[in-house]
Design a protein that fits this description.
16 strands, globular, five-stranded mixed β-sheet, 32 helices, 783 residues, alpha/beta
């Protein structure tokens, strides 16, 4: 149990590890006693698991008890005592208690070097930990020889392709960065990040996936920053180390650094399309199901730590069967649909491919587009921005640190929607204030992000900008940035005339977001090749009837057309929907107007607009089951959206459809949306906050966005805040009408036209960004 739990902990699967460790510790205390070395070893592993989760109050008493027992039983100079001192030091260091941690690390290293020798892997561990502690305190020169010693030993004993080695190499590289030795840093990051990226290629889910993704992203982020530093020093003599080559390498590293669940969802959608095209779609779906079954069995096994031996044996046998099934399916897919694997773990797209004018890659980037990749970082470092067109490529450092970027975005967002997923509290902490949108702050942010002369030279003549955002920039639509100093000062920020005269980025550029650079290959290569006919122009769910059959009628004041928001809080308890809460959801008559307008614009056939009782989850699933949903070109949900930031205990985001007998009958959960079979050119999520990030990945696309990409959507229209019920019925039909009247328009260009119509129409009173910038396009297939 202890060994299995330690393996699970190493993979980041702490939820599964904890019950096994607790059970193992209880057995050892009962049979061996509290002071046996096996008991303290398990106690240490439990403490390390707590430490992984920052549960310091749980970890500290365990580590102190282990050190006291080992000193008593093993002696002051025993390697086990040194390991116990090291673990306690790790816990103190993690809390910033450096003065307390340093003597423990020095003691542990001294014990190791004396008892097992300096040329031992244990000495590498001690040297790495002490070096890291010194580096965190800015004592970089003292730390350097310790990192040199640790890296040489780990490479000798474990090799480069090992997570322990890579952790040491990353620590060494970061310390070298602080010393300005960017060549050394880059070379060590190159070794470490190659293994991190390889680790991400495995089929993982849950905690293990999140841990692997974070490790790979963090390593690649630091590699890109180190390459920038090296280029400013002139680079190296080798061809691959010259400044131009370092920039291209950093562009690739930045793609690894911003990989997210959104990009993975699109990749898996492309893989499924490839499998369907090869005639093995059911096998691909069965393979994904086998992986989910494996993970569920792992969770059940962990919970069965206190169960019978027979139960654990049965779960082990079931897991072996699931793995056998997945192996057989994987073998069949590799033989019959080799592109399935290529798309499932897509190769990163280099600048050469983006600038190609011949072959399959020629359509990745168009002549009138510029691709903007933001590498946002945390803390006090400044991130990076890359700009790529068919002709040119450039890079620059952002003008803001990670902390300042977060504050700047939070302040602007809080002025638009102060109640959105904790922004009010964050804005207060950032000394922001709700109110009129600060145009000068939006101009300053534009300058810090895109104002570098080399970036401006590339994007100035390109009418369309494709953004790959990261960090806090995922929650701010780029179209509301301001490209020149706004006239009138802060006093004019609420004036409609001044707002219309402002040089919003959307005035000069059409914009779209991409989950990843590799999404271009999916959207413009893979999915078009697999496209099937979509004879039905529209299927829209609008103005659902939220009245449960046994519930009393709603009051008239719940149906006001202006001011009804499409996002609500506190609808779940213990992960289950609450009937009494959903019964109070106000109706949305404005969405009926929106749906009817869409039906007219697209000349959709009767039955394409489902309203009232018909706007139900049952109707959606029926069409999915008989294949009609796969024939729809535009799929819209004009209703309430529930996102993780809105609910007290919402396990996943959802869309609210017509009421049924049970609360779960009216919620389309993200996990259910992912099972839909669609080929839609557009999926319109005309609900509130459908672009809002949800835990545990607060920087990526929302679960709803990921789900519909996985289901096969080409483009999503999502909202970053509460949608005005008098704006959406005008903006969305205008967008599709523009596209229909001008077939050459891209999705980004049609959204730009419709948004500017809202901004410039005095009758709508929509000059403020909260009205015209709510919707964002994610995914741009192009023309």
């Amino acid at each position: 149990m202890n060994n299995l739990a330690d393996l699970l902990r190493t993979e980041g699967r702490n939820t599964e590890a904890e019950p096994l460790l607790r059970r193992a510790l209880a057995l050892e205390q009962q049979t061996l006693g509290a002071e046996d070395v096996l008991t303290t070893a398990t106690m240490s592993n439990l403490g390390l698991m707590f430490l992984d989760q920052d549960r310091f109050a749980d970890a500290e008493p365990l580590f102190r008890r282990v050190l006291a027992i080992d000193q008593k039983v093993l002696g002051a100079m025993h390697p086990g005592t040194g390991a116990a001192a090291n673990n306690l030091g790790l816990m103190l260091w993690s809390q910033g208690r450096y003065a307390e941690a340093e003597p423990l690390f020095r003691r542990a290293l001294a014990i190791t070097d004396k008892t097992v020798g300096e040329d031992d892997l244990a000495s590498a561990t001690g040297s790495n930990n002490l070096g890291t502690l010194l580096s965190y305190q800015g004592r970089y020169a003292e730390a350097e020889p310790l990192f040199v010693h640790a890296s040489l030993l780990t490479l000798k004993f474990l090799g480069a392709q090992n997570p322990t080695t890579d952790a040491v190499l990353e620590n060494y590289a970061l310390n070298a960065q602080y010393l300005g030795k960017f060549a050394d840093a880059s070379r060590h990051y190159r070794l470490a990040c190659a293994w991190r990226a390889a680790g991400r290629a495995r089929d993982q889910n849950g905690d293990a996936l999140l841990t692997a993704r974070k490790l790979a992203n963090d390593c690649s982020t630091q590699l890109a920053l180190s390459l920038w530093g090296w280029s400013t020093q002139g680079g190296g003599e080798a061809a691959g180390d010259r400044p131009e080559a370092l920039m291209l390498e950093a562009f690739t590293a930045s793609q690894r650094a911003v990989q997210s669940a959104g990009s993975e969802a699109m990749s898996r959608a492309a893989a499924l399309a490839a499998a369907v095209s090869a005639g093995v779609g059911p096998q691909a779906q069965a393979y994904e199901a086998a992986l989910r079954e494996r993970d569920e069995l792992d969770a059940q096994f962990a919970k069965a730590a206190n169960g019978s031996t027979e139960l654990r044996a049965a779960l082990t046998a079931a897991r072996a069967l699931a793995l056998s099934n997945s192996d057989l399916l994987a073998s069949e897919l590799k033989t019959k649909a080799p592109r399935y694997w290529e798309y499932r773990a897509p190769k990163l797209v280099g600048v050469a491919a983006l600038q190609s004018r011949a072959g399959a890659d020629a359509t990745l980037l168009r002549d009138d587009e510029a691709l903007i990749v933001f590498l946002a970082v945390s803390g006090k470092e400044k991130g990076m921005v890359f700009a790529v067109t068919k002709e040119h490529v450039s890079w620059a450092r952002m003008g803001l640190t990670g902390e300042d970027l977060t504050l700047a975005v939070t302040r602007l967002r809080s002025q638009i929607d102060p109640e959105a997923y904790g922004l009010q509290q964050a804005a207060t902490a950032a000394r922001g204030r709700p109110g009129a949108f600060d145009r000068q702050a939006a101009y300053a942010l534009y300058q810090q992000l895109l104002g570098d002369a080399s970036i401006q030279a590339i994007i100035k003549d390109k009418p369309t900008l494709l953004f790959v955002p990261s960090g806090p920039l995922t929650s701010l639509p780029p179209g509301l940035l301001v490209t020149s100093p706004p006239a009138g000062g802060r006093s004019q920020d609420a004036d409609p005339g001044a707002l219309r005269a402002t040089a919003w980025l959307l005035r000069s550029k059409a914009v779209a977001l991409l989950p990843a650079v590799s999404s271009l290959r999916t959207l413009r290569g893979v999915l078009p090749a697999q496209r099937v006919a979509t004879p039905d122009p529209l299927l829209a769910f609008a103005d659902p009837d939220f009245t449960r059959p046994a519930a009393p009628p709603r009051s008239a004041n719940s149906t006001a057309a202006r001011g009804v928001n499409r996002g609500f809080k506190t609808y779940f308890r213990d992960g289950l929907p609450l009937a009494e809460a959903l019964d109070a959801v106000p109706s949305l008559p404005g969405t009926r107007v929106e749906g009817e307008a869409l039906q007219r614009v697209l000349e959709a056939r009767p039955g394409s607009l489902l309203m009232g009782r018909d706007a139900s989850k049952a109707q959606l699933m029926a069409r999915n089951g008989d294949g009609r949903l796969a024939g729809v070109r535009v799929l819209e949900f004009a209703t309430h959206g529930l996102v993780a930031g809105d609910a007290s205990d919402l396990a996943e985001p959802a869309l609210v459809l017509a009421a049924g007998e049970r609360p779960q009958d009216e919620l389309l959960l993200a996990s259910e949306a992912a099972t839909l079979k669609i080929n839609a050119e557009w999926v319109l999520l005309s609900a509130c906050n459908t672009a809002s990030p949800d835990a545990p990945e607060a920087q990526g696309l929302s679960g709803l966005s990921r789900a519909f990409f996985y289901a096969g959507a080409r483009s999503l229209l999502v909202s970053h805040w509460r949608v005005r019920d008098d704006v959406a019925p005008v903006l969305i039909p205008a967008m599709l009408l523009a596209e229909r009247r001008q077939p050459a328009l891209s999705h980004a260009q049609s959204l730009r036209q419709a948004s500017l119509e809202i901004l410039d129409d005095p009758g709508i009173e929509g000059a403020e960004p909260s009205a015209w910038a709510a919707f964002t396009l994610i995914g741009e297939p192009g023309r």
